[in-house]
């Protein structure tokens, strides 16, 4: 089942078994409707993701935490879903349940029997979104915001006057390390401009490799000594450094933003002009705008402004006034990394190609 696809480090769904008192939040939310042709059950298969599974039951797959009656705190420490387990659609309660089999309860009724798996936890569990696509965007500085660019330490010289540095070579760095000892080297790329204001909100960063501090600058000196620990591409004098941050283990729980968000697509990655499902894009909104990891947005083509040519005909006689056509929804976007003013998102589904300048906003 591959109707939808995503990525990330293993968020897995909790088992929730509650009685009649646990009416799902989805049943009370008109945005979280089940598909008219939703199946009664789905057997989890290797390669499934939680988003995939939700897409077989729900009109909007990002609603899956709601139809399990879970909150984000509960999902942060989940029991996990494994291949071979069965997802049941409890139509009477309007929610999904997890069980391994149906067992008789009393004449004329059946009871869902949960199974908690205790061996090999995490090894074969089903992720929320499939790993692989976003991993480089989690660990490498592919976007650098303007304030970070201005203050970044830089390579000023190389040992032996080498033009380029490779693994185990020595580099001399100038700048404030702010207590960090592990860095990534990058080269600024093209500026990212806000499609509306045209202001530069950041730069693409060309990732070069990693360096480790060997000796901090002595008092009165300007230069720190570094060793290149990994080289993806050649680096040299003038290239910049950004501290390496540990890649967090994220629970990718989809949810609407806490506040209304109206963003634009800044850039598309993988060297394409038109993006589709599983492409990564950046948008011009970040944590200062109310976005966090897991926020789900809907993508729209901006409605065109056209002349109403029919207005000048017949009894209307209004000339050719300009009218703006409505924005057209073309997909959904899952936010997986957030900076101050910019965020990365993965296109989860797309009915039309997504382009720079398209709108990304809070689900209606």
TrEMBL record:
Signal peptide segment: 1-27
Domain LysM: 40-89
Pfam family, one: LysM
Gene3D superfamilies: LysM domain
Record keywords: Signal
Organism: Pseudoduganella lutea
InterPro entries from the UniProt entry: Bact_Kbp, LysM, LysM_dom_sf
Protein name from the UniProt record: LysM domain-containing protein
